[in-house]
Amino acid sequence: MKKNILFLLFICLLTASTGKLAAQATDRATLTATAQGSEPQLVVYPNPATSTVNLSIKHPQLKLKSVVIYSIIGVQIAEFNNINQSEIDLRLDRLRPGKYLLRYTLSDNSQKVTQLIKQL
What is the pLDDT along the chain (120 residues), one digit of tens a residue? Predict the structure, then answer.
């Protein structure tokens, strides 16, 4: 129960930090188009990772603007700004083993969240 409440709090904070809220679509055609167009723009590998992880943008014209790493309960662990590259390597030496969330911003100001698993 406590984990669910923390997760909802994290989602609310994440939504509030983007500055815009959107209503959910109920039309099946809209939902299908959204599901097809929601391919991840960022490839995170290897995942699970041990010491370093590579972040690579699929789209050739987009660049990675910033990356923020959160613990699974929503506490900000690290922030990397002004990256402006299509591929980077992040060192994970300071992270404990576990699940983390990566919120990344692309050069077109779109933001998405993906999961990262750190192993021993």
Answer: 766 676 666 665 555 555 544 444 444 443 333 334 556 688 999 999 999 999 999 888 899 999 999 999 999 999 999 999 999 999 998 899 999 999 999 999 999 999 999 998
Q: Which CATH class is domain 2-118?
A: mainly beta
What are the structural domain ranges in the chain? 2-118
Predicted model pTM: 0.66
Query: Which DSSP letter does residue 90 get?
Result: E
**How many other CB atoms sit within 10 Å of the CB of residue 101?**
19
- Decide: 12 and 82 in contact? Cβ < 8 Å: no
Q: For residue 43, what are the contacts with CB-CB under 8 A and spacing of at least 6?
A: 54, 55, 56, 57, 58
Query: Which amino acid type is present at position 58?
Result: K
